[in-house]
Every structure is written in structure tokens, then in C-alpha cells.
Amino acid sequence: MKIIYQWNPWSYMHIASTEIAKDLDIEIDEIIWKEDFNEAWAIIDENSIWVLPIENSYMWSIHASLYNFLQYDYKIIWEYYQDVNHCICSKEKELKNIKKAYSQLPALDQCTNYFKKHNIIPEIFSDTALSAKYVNESKETWLAAICSEKAAKIYWLNILEKNIQDQKWNTTRFAIITTQNNKTKYKRKSKKISILFEASDVPASLHKCLGAFATNHVNLTKIESLPSYSWKFHYLFWLDFEWEMKDVNIIKSLKELAFFTKTIKIIWEY
């Protein structure tokens, strides 16, 4: 069995993958990185698991991740929350000498206040870990990378300051997904269900859809609207809610929801 993640070794996705491997009920033979997002989705089979970032506490949901559940019939077997603690790292030893910092756009956006405070110019790079590699190989000592502590150590950079992100509890939520026939399980369980639905085109349909859960005392933990592929300015809704499919309240909620929707796709319970 192998784990697949996007981006490069010692990116936050790689760090999450190494942690996730510890709690699977099967031994992982290798952890593989793929630079291309769509390629990673396309190669999942019964002998692989895809570690997929789906939202960040500071930024927003990653819509490309959510949309692909419409294209691929995969299931979520668990969710994992990865702390994102950005470090500013350089061959330079003094922060006051740093003029420019490289990293992936979301990482840069998460450190906006820090850059303003220290008069550092943010520069977009493809990946947090690769930015550390680039700074390591550069002849310019006044460059820095925004990356994980592990990436800094791998590429022999000085950590000038840790936890520089604006939101100190910055966290990325990962979904561990695989094919429907893959029997791999996680040792722990969240007792959560994710679905995608499109409400009927009638007045108050969304109110009625959400009412199906309210009347049955089901706690929603996430609701997100996504532009529909079917027609302009039509929307899908992603819902996360608690409990298990076998619970009577869930059965009643989904049965009631069906009256007010065009489509429902149950991503999985995990």
C-alpha cells in the first residue's frame, strides 16, 4: 500500500502523510509525491491512498479538491488536522538582513502582517519545501524561505523565527481518500459524514434542505456553496455533519433532504 500526496518532500502535505501512515490499519510501503494535482487524483487505485488538503482555517476551502469528488467515485476514510507553523529560514543569521521571502502563495498570504512589520518583500514560489531548496542553492544570502521547520533542517537553513503566521492556530484539514473497493481503515473515527447536493429551484429550497437536519437534531459542522457545473449561477452545497449513516436521525434527515434536492452525493462516513 502506498500514500500519494501533492507537491514535494517535506512540504506540509508530506508531513501530514507521514503522520497519517502511523494510524492506518495496514503497513505503508512507500510515500509518493506528485507535482501535478490532477495526476494524483487519476492514479489512485485499490493499493493507494491520497492525502488531500480540503480547507485551511485561515484561508478557505480548496474548491479544486471538493469538485473532484464529482468526477471521481472515491470515499473519505478519515480526516486529519495538520498544524501549519511557518518559519522564516535563510543562510543569513540575522533577520534584519532579509529583504525578500519566497514561498507558495497561500503561505505568503498567511504571513502578511509579519512581512509588513519587518519590511520583507514576499515572492511567490511553487512550493514551501522547494522555496527552502531554492534559498539553499542561491548565492544571495539576503533571501529567505517560508516553510516548515523540517524543510529548513533538510536544506540546512537557519531558522530565524518560528510560528510567524498571522493566525497562530493556522491549521489545514486533510481528507484521506481512496477507491470504494479499498478496505484500508483508520484506527480512529471522526463520526462524521460529508455530502454534496444541489437544491431544487423553488423558493426557500435551501431553507428546507437545512431544515431536514434541524428537525432531526443533526449538528452541521460545515456548509459551503460551490458554483455548479450544470449552469451559470447555480450552486452545489457541501455539508459535513455528525453521527453515522446507520443512526435513525441521519436516515430521517437524508430522506427528508431528498424531497428538496435535484441531486445528492454521499461522499462517505468516516
Helix content: 25-40%
Spans of at least 5 consecutive residues with low confidence? none
Distance between the termini: 20 Å
Return the structural class.
alpha/beta
How many alpha or pi helices? 9
Radius of gyration from CA coordinates: 21 Å
Query: Secondary-structure element sequence?
Result: EHEHEHEEEHHEHEHEEEHEEHE
The strand line-up of the biggest sheet is 2-1-3-10-4
Compute the average pLDDT: 92
Q: Tell me the major beta sheet.
A: 5 strands, mixed
| Global morphology | globular
> How many extended strands?
14
- Which range does the strand content fall in? 25-35%
Structure, described:
- This protein is an alpha/beta fold and 270 residues long.
- It contains nine helices and 14 strands.
- It has helices at residues 12-20, 37-42, 63-71, 105-109, 112-118, 128-137, 149-154, 205-214, 248-257; strands spanning 2-6, 30-34, 48-56, 74-83, 87-90, 100-103, 121-124, 143-147, 158-161, 171-179, 192-199, 220-227, 235-242, 261-269.
- It has a five-stranded mixed β-sheet, sandwiched between helices. A five-stranded mixed β-sheet has the order 7-6-8-5-9, sandwiched between helices.
- The mean pLDDT is 92.
